[in-house]
Structure formats: C-alpha cells, structure tokens
Amino acid sequence: MDGLNTSAKTIKYTNQRMEILKFLREFNGHPTVDDVYEGVKCKLSRISKATVYNNLRFLAEKELIKEVNTKGVSRFEANLVTHHHIICLECGDIKDYESEELTEYSLNVASKIDGFKIESTDTNFYGYCNKCRRKQNG
Amino acid sequence: MDGLNTSAKTIKYTNQRMEILKFLREFNGHPTVDDVYEGVKCKLSRISKATVYNNLRFLAEKELIKEVNTKGVSRFEANLVTHHHIICLECGDIKDYESEELTEYSLNVASKIDGFKIESTDTNFYGYCNKCRRKQNG
DNA sequence: GTACGTGCAAATGATTTGCGTTAAG
DNA sequence: CTTAACGCAAATCATTTGCACGTAC
Fold first, then answer.
1. Are residues B127 and A105, on separate chains, in Cβ contact within 8 Å?
2. What's the Å distance between residue A57 CA and nucleotide C6 C1'?
3. Phi-psi region of A78 (alpha: psi -120 to 50; beta: other; left: phi over 0)
4. What is the mean predicted confidence (pLDDT) over A80-91?
5. What is the pTM of this model?
6. Which pairing describes strands B66-68 and B75-77: parallel, antiparallel, or unpaired?
7. How many whole angstroms separate alpha carbon A133 and alpha carbon A88?
8. Smallest Cβ distance to A70: which of B69, B105, B120?
9. Which CATH number fits domain B84-136: 3.40.50.460, 3.30.70.1890, 2.60.120.260, 3.30.1490.190?
C-alpha cells in the first residue's frame, strides 16, 4: 500500500549469483566480465552474459566484490581487504600487493585532506613484468 | 626498399591536434572525450569526434598526456608530474592532490617489489566531496 | 503465489576503422 | 608531391535493457 518498500527487496540466492561470487573468490587475479562468463560456463552451461553483467553490478553494489579502476574493460575482485595493485604497462596484467604500512601512511596523509571525507585509499604501481621485460630486451 | 621505416613516420602538427593538447593543458580537471570534443568545437567547428579519439590516443602514446584509470568512460589529463587523485564515490568527480612525500614513500616501497620493474606510482583516495555529503545528510 | 532473476535479443553507448579528401612538411 | 591526418559513416565492442518465462522463498 505504501509503495515505498524498495529497500525491503528480497535478495534471492540463485545458482548463477552464487557461482559468480564463488568464482571471484577462488580466482587468483582480476577477471574481466568475459573471464567470469567463461569461468562459470562449465558449471552453468546455459548462463547468459547479461546475467553475468547484472550480477557483477549487483554484487559490487552490495559490496561483496569490488570493481577495479582500469582503462578499457571492467575488472573485478573479491578481495575486500585494502591492498595495492602492480600494473604492467605492456600487457595490462594486475597483481595484488599488500602493504599495511603503505595503507596506514596514505590514510594518515588522507586525514589532512580538506573538503573530502576520505573512506579508503589504494596505490597503483606501474611498471613492466618479467615476461614483458624479457620480450623487450630480446 | 627495406620496408622497415615505420618509426620514421613524420608527426604532423595539425590545428586539431594542437587545439586538443592546448585544451587539455588549460583544462582544470580530468575531461572525458566528450568534454574535449565540446571544448575544442568553438575553435574548430567542423572537427569530428573520431579525430578527438584518434588524437587523444596518439597524444597518450607519445606521452604528452595521460589517460586516467577510471571506471566507465575514459578521462585524460595533461599534468605529467606524478600526483594523486581524490575520487568522489558518489559523483565520480576527480581532484588532483600533490604530495611529494607520499610519492617518495611509495617509490621507496616500490623499490622492494620483486619481479616488476616499477616506473611510477600514484595513490587514489576515495570518499565523498562536500557537495555530495550535503546531499546525503539532507 | 509473488516478485525477483534468468535467458535471449534488441538497444544503447563508447570507441575504432575504412575510405575518399585535405593539408602539413 | 607525398603521406599523415581529417571528416564522415559504418563497423565493432562493451554494457544495459525489455520482455516472456522460470524459480527462490
């Protein structure tokens, strides 16, 4: 009757949603939408890519996963603990890098920033991975 | 005869290219492709959006500008000095934040990373800008 | 039984590409 | 004059949406 019970929406734990979350939690990296789609297809052969898109958006909104800031295609991760990223400028590969001291240092810097209420921080390191370095040097 | 003179390609300093670079250097922020397109149209009314795309890619390849890592649409900046970004989680607004001490601290951390030759680093701060905070609190 | 979620296909939006023409060097 | 770059339109790729049907609760 009130027509305002949007927030009372029931969340349904469907197979598709659960497999996508499971895949992300077990995947060691930062998969794209296509990676996730290919990864869950073995379990759910009839799954549609739209379902993968919708669920990744849904899970990110519910903060069960995070979308990674990247150029080009979207990438996701289930690691919710603050950490940093090492990004290869050649192949785009992303590796996690944990450093509590860097996080603390950054948060301390953040506390001095005016006009913004900072919630979190992370650092990107850009360089060349061993594989790409080998290629360049011949 | 050798068919290998690809690197000898002549770079042409066209009006379009120069206006796009000028716009980025004078723009205080992190414009999208559309922002750049709208911004240079007053000077070059017949410019095509494909030209804007092609030149932004070109300028980024030549390292005269940088593409910013963001979700969704591409953003660019002409500020090549290492700096950090404050990103509003609500409206997506990005502000530059300079902190040499943070850069140095991060580079020092970077020097300990194995298996990657780190070239540069930057830190993102996520939070809510004053405008969005006001909206949320009513 | 009642939504919410799914699969599919179509729509949208961002970006790239092909091609005939223009202009920088 | 040579060829990179332009403008335009078509093509491609990523992502979202509408809708009829299915299924979690």
1. no
2. 15
3. alpha
4. 93
5. 0.91
6. antiparallel
7. 10
8. B69
9. 3.30.1490.190
The verdict on a CB contact (< 8 Å) between B102 and A109 is yes
Q: What is the overall mean pLDDT for chain B?
A: 91
pLDDT score at A5: 44
List alpha helices for B1-138, DSSP H.
15-26, 33-41, 49-61, 100-110, 130-137
Nucleotide nearest to A49 (CA to C1'): C7
From the Cβ of A112, is strand C under 7 Å away? no
Helix, coil or strand: residue B6: helix
**Interatomic CA distance for residues A106 and B22, integer angstroms:** 33
From the options 3.10.20.740, 3.40.50.410, 1.10.10.10, 3.20.20.80, give the CATH code of B3-77: 1.10.10.10
Residue recorded with tokens 């900046």: B77
Name residue, tokens 């009130």.
A2
| Cα-based torsion angle of the residue sequence B129, B131, B135, B138 in order, rounded to the nearest 10 degrees | 100
**pLDDT single digits (tens) B14-27:** 999 999 999 999 99
